[in-house]
Prior knowledge:
Layout: H1 7-17, E1 55-65, E2 68-77, E3 82-89, H2 94-107, E4 114-117, H3 128-135, E5 138-141, H4 151-162
Parallel strand pairs: 1-4, 4-5
Antiparallel strand pairs: 1-2, 2-3
Amino acid sequence: MVDRGNHKRIYRLMKEFGIQARIRKKRLVHGKREVCVVSKNYLNRGFQAARPNEKWVMDVTSLPFNKQLFYLSVIYDLYNNEVVSYKISQVNNLQLVFDTLEAACKKRPVKDTLLHSNQGVQYTSRAYHPALKTYGMKASMSRKGNCLDNACIESFFGHLKAE
Length: 163
């Protein structure tokens, strides 16, 4: 049986031998912390659309290829489960999202389209929402940490990676 010892005796012995507990440092936050712009969840898991270009969902996923990581940004129409536009890049940044959005807006009429996304750093940036307003689109965002609110695009990525 292990003798647990009195805490006062352990403290005295630690002091006598110069033993101290090591205190862990707090984790540092890297990068700039920008003020987030979050939209309401207008989609609210209503994944059916009555007409084309009514409800779109957007997300970015990573794809490993030849020991490199590429990022795939996709806009997906919920009316007919069609990929409206996609872009691939070696960096996951706001420009990737803007390029995907611009390609989709060149192909189709987007006025009054609801564009749903998660609360990723690209979608909560201050530059993203004015870009949507210039196209006449309405932003919708999943609740923080809830992947079920964006399940249709997550399911698409799951099938894509399994194929």
